[in-house]
Amino acid sequence: MTKPREKTREELTAEIEESKKKIRQFENREKIIKQKLSVEERKARTHRLCKRGGFMESLVPELIAMPDEDAKAFLRLALTSEPAQEFLKKRAGDGNAE
Questions:
Q1: For 22, phi and psi rounded to 5 degrees?
Q2: Calpha distance 96→98 (Å, rounded)
Q3: Can you tell me the distance from the alpha carbon of 97 to that of 94, in angstroms, rounded to the nearest whole number?
Q4: Is 91:97 a contact under the CB 8 Å cutoff?
């Protein structure tokens, strides 16, 4: 059997540079994918907030005309009431706390 030819210093240096270039490309690709994921997560959150806000306004139409501070106070009162707390505890106990 013949011995494989050893690479020259220049060939090895070129191979290292090519590998570094590929690493930079993969790092950039990872960065782009993370940005896309962040945008998708933000869109999903915005959609969820709008949907739930619309649902709240449909249940309590007075919320539409209320200043933000009044709406916040109303929701805090509603959500800290005993029935609301019992509902939340029951949901947490059932494992449905999504």
A1: -65, -40
A2: 6
A3: 8
A4: yes
- Which pLDDT value is given to residue 27? 98
Residue 97's pLDDT is what? Answer: 46
Structure-token pair, residue 55: 């649902």
pLDDT < 50 stretches in the chain: 97-98
Structure token pair of residue 35: 């940005």
The backbone region for 32, taken as left when phi is positive above 0, alpha when psi lies in -120 to 50, beta otherwise, is: alpha
Cα gap 76→2, rounded to integer Å: 82
Rounded CA-CA distance 10/29 in Å is 29
Helical (H) or strand (E) element with 18 = helix 9-59
CB atoms < 10 A from the CB of 63, how many?
A: 15
